[in-house]
Amino acid sequence: MVRPPVANVDQALLITSAVEPDFSLNLLDRFLVYLEGHAIHAEIYLTKTDLASAKLLEKIRASLTGYRVIGYPVFAPEHVFNSTVLKQVQASFADKLTIFTGQTGSGKSTLINHLVPGLDLATASISRALNRGRHTTRTTDLYPIHGGLVADTPGFSSLGLLDVTLADLRDRFPEFVALAPNCKFRGCQHVSEPHCAVKAALAAGKIMASRYKNYLQFREELSGKRPVYKKK
Ligand SMILES: Nc1nc2c(ncn2[C@@H]2O[C@H](COP(=O)(O)OP(=O)(O)OP(=O)(O)O)[C@@H](O)[C@H]2O)c(=O)[nH]1
Ligand SMILES: [Mg+2]
Ligand SMILES: [Zn+2]
Q: In this structure, are 140 and 183 located in the same domain?
């Protein structure tokens, strides 16, 4: 992969902060689209739950439940470094190469430090003015942890759509792929075709409206229209 530059990746822990930087479904879907393109199993870990209001957390947790339904495991512990949850994460490392990826400042290095006391990776507080991290981790490094290799990686503040074509984008949404055999047309892009199972599921509330909306936005971006990058 180019972002981060690392090969033979088995799985990714997508580190997503509730706040500082703000939780973004758009960015989350971008990361997932990228990882799907590389056939990398993705799990989502929610950080900074201690800094978010109860109301916001409730909203974020409701969204994350939708991702669980799609098949992405989600860790969203009440206490972010809860030892039971850390043990669950550690248990998934054996015999695999796992990357920690996500926005700058989301807490990737901090979480690895909690998983490996004494490792002491550099971390830094986010810039409040920009509401984002300071690109503290500059290189991608592998650490042998709990029988596997774990990579801390530099975070990004935005993510373009890499290695994907307009026609292939639909294949990066597992819930669309599962429904596609029921679409009338095999090449259905789930946009304006008649008898589309994805649109029917959307209308019935069976797939996440935010994911479908992001799908349409990514399509626009890929079709060369003026790129609109929305954080929320
Ligand atoms: N309150 C709180 N602070 C956290 C949490 N996780 C990380 N932080 C803080 O957030 C800041 C950024 O954390 P880092 O671990 O440096 O973030 P990163 O994802 O490695 O960032 P880059 O290396 O720039 O990609 C640090 O000040 C951490 O102490 C959390 O769950 N709660
Ligand atoms: Mg870091
Ligand atoms: Zn369709």
A: no
Q: What average pLDDT does this structure show over 45-73?
A: 97
Query: Which pLDDT belongs to residue 92?
Result: 93
Tell me the CATH number at 211: 1.10.40.50
- State the closest ligand 1 atom to the C-alpha of 155, by its place in the atom list counted from 1: 25
Spacing, Cα 139 to ligand 2 middle (Å): 9
124 lines ligand 1 (CB under 6 A): yes
CA torsion 63→65→66→67, rounded to 10°? 100
Examine the domain organization and report whether 27 and 52 are in the same domain: yes
What is the rounded end-to-end Cα distance, in angstroms, of the chain? 26
> Which residue type occupies 146?
H
- Compute the distance from residue 11 Cα to the ligand 2 centre, in Å: 18
- Regarding the beta carbon of 108 and ligand 1, being less than 6 Å apart is answered yes
> Is the domain of 126 the same as that of 186?
no
Q: Poorest-confidence range of 10-14, 76-80, 126-130, 224-228? A: 224-228
Q: How far is CA 10 from CA 60, 95, 148, 150, 199, in A?
A: 27, 9, 10, 10, 32
Residue 98 has pLDDT above 70, yes or no: yes
Nearest CA to ligand 1 atom 11: 125
What average pLDDT does range 87-108 have in this prediction?
A: 96
Domain hosting 205: range is 169-222
- Name beta bridge partners: 74: 44
Give the predicted TM-score (pTM) of the model.
Answer: 0.93
